[in-house]
Specification:
- Strands 1-2 form a two-stranded parallel ribbon.
- It has 171 residues and is mainly α.
- It is globular, with a radius of gyration of 19 Å.
- The chain is built from seven helices and two strands.
- Helix 6 links the parallel strand 1 and strand 2.
- It folds into two domains: 44 residues, no CATH class; 117 residues, Rossmann fold (3-Layer(aba) Sandwich).
Length: 171
């Protein structure tokens, strides 16, 4: 990981010295959960019961699909992820990539780079990002990025089926 600290980012050494850095966009949620003293057995899946509101659905219907430019990729995160995958490969740890469903069909930044890493190490990929059962189906999403409970249950069923049908027959 040392090579990640010696990058062009002048703050990299400071950022990576704090274990909470990876949660920087969720810091308030993490602090609130800590202060609530949530028991350890309750920190797993928490269903999101809300659905997208009709105004949000209407606003996104006119969304224009576009590719994200490569200059938006966090290359430090990508290098760190690639190193993690390589380490797992050399230790014989089997990884499976699951790409979450999306409400809006799009080509997210770095998606193809992640898939290239998977291909390099022979990692099984289950791509639900373009699954027609989810795209434009507001009843499965709390917002454009997060599945609600109904969507999470559908994804779980589809993933179990995909894993059962995979070469390894994992489940």
């Amino acid at each position: 990981m040392r090579h990640l600290l010696n990058t062009q980012d002048q703050w990299a050494q400071v950022k990576f010295s704090f274990p909470i850095y990876s949660f920087s966009d969720k810091i308030f949620r993490v602090v609130i959960e800590y202060l609530k003293k949530t028991p350890a057995y309750e920190t797993g899946y928490r269903p999101l019961t809300e659905a997208m509101n009709p105004e949000e659905v209407k606003r996104y219907r006119d969304y224009k699909i576009s590719d994200s430019p490569l200059d938006n990729i966090d290359f430090q995160a990508l290098a760190s992820f690639s190193e993690f995958v390589e380490t797992c490969y050399h230790l014989g740890i089997k990884l499976i990539f699951v790409y979450s469903p999306m409400y809006i069909p799009s080509e997210p930044t770095g998606r193809e780079k992640l898939f290239a890493i998977a291909k390099k190490y022979g990692i099984e990929i289950h791509d639900f990002g373009r699954d027609p059962d989810f795209i434009w189906h507001a009843e499965y999403f709390r917002d454009v990025l997060h599945l609600n409970d109904k969507g999470a249950n559908l994804l779980t069923k589809k993933l179990i089926q995909a894993l059962n049908n995979s070469n390894d027959g994992i489940l």
